[in-house]
Amino acid sequence: MLDRNNPQPLYVQVHNILVGRLDSGIYKPHDRIPSENLLRQEFGVSRETLRSVLTELVRDGRLYRVQGKGTYVSEPKITAKDFTYVGIRRQLEELGYNVTTILLGVEKQPCPLSIAAHLQIPEGEEVYYIQRLRKVKEESLSIHNTYVPAALCPDFARNDFCNKQMCELLSEQYGLVRGRVRETLESVLAREDETELLGIKKGQPLLKLSDEIATADGQLFEYSTVVFRGDKLKIQLNYGF
Asked: What does the alpha-carbon distance between residue 109 and residue 36 come to, in Å, rounded to a whole number?
């Protein structure tokens, strides 16, 4: 029940109660939550206050609406940790998810200027470009783009990019062991080609993770970008634990 003597606004109290029900499993994924009228009666708040709370929870991905039917509980986001030393695939498998990797393409090509800057090699030097699509429970989750200098990895295209993690291939086959990583995480809007692969709308927010990876002595050997569906994944970063 709401505490009307509490200095917290009623909006915040209603929000916290509903989040508590979602987090504790009182409202389970794909359950229909009580109607607006029932929730208004329970909390004793205005229609505007309740709708604002529900709209925020929909925007945060905790709820979703079905026109003409009501408001339902969303599937919880996958929580992944920093990918620097444990790849996303291994984390998902350890969490019990069925993970599928689809190879979209492998190509040896002249390195574009924008990529050469990250790998610290001359523009036009040959690199391998590998693009993969990762699915969880048959639903697209992420697109992986990787660039590796061809001079460091002869015949790199012959490898199994669907069943082996990139870091394993580079370390086991070519002795390129990651010792230093510069990682950038940012929010971007989905491009048209990404929307088709991920099954989302153009302009939907994505999480973009970029990695410059080098050996312990500073030899850069991989530049990769991964775009994740922000409505399906959240990244947990721990410091000092």
From this structure: 57
Write out pLDDT tens, residues 198-228.
998 888 888 888 999 999 999 999 999 999 8
Per-residue exposure over 48-68, b if at least 16 CB sit within 10 Å of its own CB, e if not: ebbeebbeebeeeebbeeeee
The sheet carrying 99-110 orders its strands as 99-110, 126-136, 139-149, 220-229, 205-214, 180-189
Length of the chain: 241
- What is the tens place of the pLDDT at every residue in 158-181? 999 998 889 889 999 999 998 998
- What separation in angstroms does the CA of 112 have from each of 47, 140, 146? 55, 28, 13
- Which residues sit opposite 236 in a β-bridge? 81
Coil, helix or strand at residue 211: strand
Residue type (1 letter), 19: V
CB of 220 closer than 8 Å to CB of 120:
yes
Cβ 51 vs Cβ 58: under 8 Å = no
Place of tokens 């927010």: 205
